[in-house]
Amino acid sequence: MHFPKRKHILLLLFCIFGALNISAQDLLVRQATSDKKLSTTDSVTSHRRIAKNIRGHVSDYTNVEPYCSWDNGAVYAYKGQTPPTTFKIDLRNFVMPTPSRKITSRYGYRASFGRNHYGLDVKIYTGDTIVSAWEGKVRVVKYEPNGWGRYVVVRHPNGLETLYAHLSRQLVVPNQEVKAGEVIGLGGNTGRSTGSHLHLECRVLGQAINPEILFDFPNQKMTSDFYTWHSDGKASTKGVSPYAEKEQNEAAEYAESEKLIMQPDPSKVDYYRVEKNETIETVAKKLGVTQDYLLNANGLSRKAKLRAGMVLKY
Q1: Inter-axis angle of helices 291-298 and 242-262, nearest 10
Q2: pLDDT of amino acid 52
Q3: Predicted confidence (pLDDT) per residue in 103-131, tens digit
Q4: Of 20, 90, 130, 247, which has the maximum CB count within 10 A?
Q5: Which residues contact residue 281 at a Cβ distance below 8 angstroms, ignoring those fewer than 6 apart?
Q6: Dihedral sign from CA coordinates of 111, 291, 166, 200
């Protein structure tokens, strides 16, 4: 039997090991390419998942029920939009706008000023942090020297809009999304104010709600998990606390009294000629009626300016 020489055997072994090494390298290259593709696929999938989660978390605040518009320029931006007859508001997942428990002025008619107070004043000090009550999107950031001073309006997914006024600083910008408890400004005394306080308003499609129906500042909590708002001023008291029920009943009575005040009696209409430099406020005070009554009786808007010689019904 003929055996191959040793050098032939060594050459054969070298070829075999070389082939195995090349095969192994090819396998590693294929595996690396596969891992790279997998990594890329995972990355794309991950980004898509994150984007989907973001889109799912952030509401289209233009179409949050019951709204169908978004306006950064005006608080009262809903002329012509009809509010729902009833609307259920989810009050959960909230943060109190301030830890202060002291209320200095309540919602309602102010005889001394001859006008309505559509919010709740809570005692704070200049520089105190004011936070958003719920998550939402900032709609208005403005300064009104003769009224709210520096103020912020936030629209929330639950259908409420909250207004925070008399701030010393605004720390958000229009169209910014905020979380519940996120700082939106610092307390202050700007605008028409006689001392540092937070003026808080709650509105549905521009219509004011007594904040004390929703917020229990003395106990630093909401009055209930849900609140059913009615466009006629009456509210559902089912499932809410006795405190909230009391406030709702008072709000309904106030709304009814406002309807009587706002409707002029045709049999007792009189006329007044406006003098130079007079305003709705000064005329209303002189005649002993509310500004809202005067505006309603003459079909005027809140921004209307009076001219000398103009005749008003009252």
Answers
A1: 50
A2: 36
A3: 998 888 777 667 788 899 999 999 999 99
A4: 130
A5: 114, 115, 291
A6: positive
